[in-house]
Amino acid sequence: MKKNIFILITIFIISGCYSIKEDCYHGMTTICFGEPYSSVAKFQKPYSLGRTDSQQRWDDLVACGAKRGDLSLHSAWRKALEPLNKELLEELSSNFRKCMKSKGYVSINDCGRKNSTTDKRICNE
To answer: In angstroms, what CA-CA distances link 13 with 23, 29, 33, 61?
Structure first.
């Protein structure tokens, strides 16, 4: 009897829970379906969400201070990271976002995850 209870408790612990909102299994480890969108993909033109011209977006990102190919966009405020200067980081980050806004982009906070049920289809790489 004790063995059966132990097995039952073990099954509940290992099985975890599935989250429809995140498209993830949560248990001993978290397993999510799909890949997250990059920071670059989160900048979209409001009239073409999910279909923003990637080449033009890279040209605009570079004009605002990012290095081509830097999907994290850390290159836009690299000067403030080594050593960490919070005031400069806030200033560079703010200037970068203002520059992208002046070029007609909006920043999408939650795109979902690529190729999963959470993909909102409003971001593109």
So the answer is: 19, 11, 21, 46
- CB-based burial label for 31 (10 Å; 0-12, 13-18, 19+): exposed
Q: Where are the domains of the chain?
A: 37-114
Reported as type and span, the H/E element at residue 61 is helix 54-63
Name the phi and psi angles at 30, rounded to 5.
Answer: -100, 130
Give the contacts of 124 (CB within 8 A, at least 6 positions apart): 41, 44, 50, 51, 52, 54
- Given the structure tokens 């039952």, which residue do they identify? 8
User: Which two three-digit tokens encode residue 115?
Assistant: 């190729």
Distances (CA, A) of 56 to 31, 52, 76, 105: 34, 8, 17, 11
Alpha-carbon gap, residue 82 to 79, rounded angstroms: 6
Write the pLDDT tens digit of every residue in 41-83. 999 999 999 899 999 999 999 999 888 888 888 888 777 677 7
